[in-house]
Amino acid sequence: MIHMCQDYLAESSDHGECTTTCWVGGAHMQPRMKLVKHTGERAEYPLDAEVIHLGREQARTIPIDDPLVSRRHAEITCVSKAHGANAWVIRDLGSANGTYVNDNLLTASHRLRVGDRIQLGNTLFTYEEMESGQRFRNIIAVLIALSTLVGALVAWRASVATDDAASARNDGTHVLIRLSHYRSGIDASLYQNLGAFVSYRLHLGTMELLDRALADSKEKTYTSSLEGERLFHANMALAALDLVDQDYLHRAESAAEQSFERTRFTETNLAEATTLEDLDYEAHFRESDRASLIAQRLTLTAVLLSLSIFFYTGATLSESRRKYFLAAMGVVTFSLGTLVAALIELAERAG
Question: Are 41 and 70 spatial neighbours (Cβ–Cβ below 8 Å)?
Fold first, then answer.
């Protein structure tokens, strides 16, 4: 033990006095560190003795079923320094295949640090805090639950937005159908007015021709016949005029110059129809497109939040150093997803 303490101080930058009293698991101290085996079935071994023996012998503190591990392969010793800090030091016991720490062959005693990888034969251990693993897993469990909850809320909002988009598009389709019916009715009325107007202008034009013929006629019999025919066309013109909506009739001195304002007739009647009920189908389609875009963005946000759960799960299954990176990636993706979801919601309310 004294020899190991001297080896440790010789290679350490911390030159405080060390003793052989560690009392791990006793009244002075509870075990705070552990070895975690990652090869084969995962197992945890608390460092609850002053000296931890590793080897293939079943009598070892941590027996290792590995043909490349020596019977007495390595040992880990607790070293207590004068100011009360404790350290765990590993050394190889002359094993056939050597002991590796962080992929480096161990040639002298080495003070272990949290996250160190210890390779004995084909068996890999990591050196971790006794409570850190469980505490870390508890934190990850809370983060997974939080990501799941927020992801479920975002997915629900995406579903609502999808339903809103479908409802708005359905409303727009019904409005478009009603508008088509109104347009059909307006077009039918327009054609009736145009038919009556054409008849009116035809009889009016005939009257103008008869007026010129009467002006040139000198024979009484012929004149009487022309006057009778003119009266007939005058009555027919008046009858046709009664069927024309005269608000849109452009009058002139001659029949050829008179016209019916078709465009104004259609626009005015359509405007009156819009005052009776909603016929703005484009507004519904715009609302549908907006809700659909929100649904797409929220769906992508839900995927991003699911990705954070993937990182969290990976963190619980990874080795010590990598798990912190994966956990950090999970936090980043969760924060980003939550921020994006909040911005989408705020933008929708502001719009």
Answer: no
